[in-house]
## 1
Amino acid sequence: MFVSLEGIDGSGKSTQARLLAEALGPETLLIREPGGTGAAERIRELLAEPALELDPLAELLLFLAARADLTARVIRPALDAGRDVVSDRFADSSVAYQGAARGLGVGEVISLTGSATEGLWPDLTVLLRVDPEVGMDRADGDDRFESEGLELQRAVAQAYEEIAKIASDRVVVVDGEGTVEEVHERVMEAVRSR
Ligand code: TYD
């Protein structure tokens, strides 16, 4: 099974992805996006640089390049070997951040990300819903998206809500506010119900 965790910056995805991967057992592959291969980690560093000016389409294509490498060389082989894969962010991040918040267009980004992954989408996506102000308080604010502030996070949060409606067969919304253990239990419930 391929599960992705999504949410705005500071939603607690990284912690919850790790706890979910631990709960699914030692064979589970835990990855984060962008990242997970040598090239994708280099792209991650580049994208996180707040001072770097980047055209929105170029930004999208960098995320997609990282994802294409990770999908072809890490995710697909793991799934083919029967392993569970838990990803801290995946294609929906591009749809929400670049497609909606950056204004490149949701349909366009869905189509391009589908090409980058040769049609691979998660079996289940857990969307951690937190208030953008709560997320801003939790996030450290040091990457290019966090440093753009509350307005961007609000646009991303709204985009995620729309994705959850459009893809309701794949996306489960989980309340991300509460203790780490409470949220973990909600995530496990969402996974079990699949
Ligand atoms: P993330 O790993 O969640 O940051 P951190 O671990 O520092 O909390 O993601 C890095 C940033 O990249 C985040 O602001 C969201 C953004 N992002 C996109 O805009 N598009 C994408 O396709 C992905 C995967 C991430």
Note: The chain has one domain: 2-193.
## 2
Amino acid sequence: MKKNLTDSKKNRVVVRVPGTSANCGPGFDCLGLATTIYNYLDLTLIRSGKVVVESVGEGAENIPKGRRNLTWQAVSRFLKAVGKEDEFKGAIIRMKNNVPISRGLGSSSTAIVAGLFAANEIVGAPLNRQELLKLATELEGHPDNVAPALFGGFTVSVMQDGEVQTFSFLPRVKLKLIVAVPDFELSTRLARKVLPRNVSMKDAIFNVSRASMLIAALVEGREDLLPLAFDDALHQPYRKKLVPGMSAVFDAAKSAGALGAAISGAGSCLIAFTTLHSGLEDKISTAMTTAFKSAGVTSKALILDVDRRGAQVVRR
Ligand code: HSE
């Protein structure tokens, strides 16, 4: 009995993973940032083939139980990758979720990253974060949410022949993030379905110039260049019809002093950016939720910072 208890303690870890905001305006499928809202995973790897899932918090009632659970799929993918699938055939997965589901704040990425990161810790961390990112990207399909969830900060990711390369940095401009969370979900699949197959050279140049300016301004601490840098011509114009009031919320945020505003990931959340020292976050959040309300959408606001550390062990 005592031995079993010690064993299960040894095979258990609690981790936290930040919610993320992908695209950041012009960086479709390549830019992302980690935020200070967190999901927690208490994972125990077990030898029997049982998968037990318990969750509280955001979306708890709809989170798949058993082997269809996304965190289990990540754990199982990890165990296969390190040749431990015969040693641990099941898991006890306890989740406490604060990140709203299907709103563009990376909830599915937190589930994947938490599973990979926690399982890796339990077996003695054979993979580094870059190697975990590779598995996470394979499971998620694109790197822009899983990269900041793992590394923290602001991330730039490039895909080459199915392999991902990520640069993660802490912006020298201290950003404050204002997220308007509408009371409706938006599936990423639908939000990708409305996008065109091809875009014009003009729109491509519009985005390349802004995405480049955004990174340069954040790395160099050039707040004065940011008002130019958050606009997008590649995905937001097509997704506008899926988020009623989108343009009005962007205008309201900017009129209240935001540096820029964008759809968070594939939506439905809208995110505005200001600086830590502006003191404008309350004014911007009220302007955003009021504009949403005028468009018939109920929303709540989250005021967040950029998470600096990415996935972390909370307790062993
Ligand atoms: N870059 C993705 C998109 C993020 O905008 O579709 C969603 O996960």
Note: Confidence is low (pLDDT under 50) at residues 1-6.
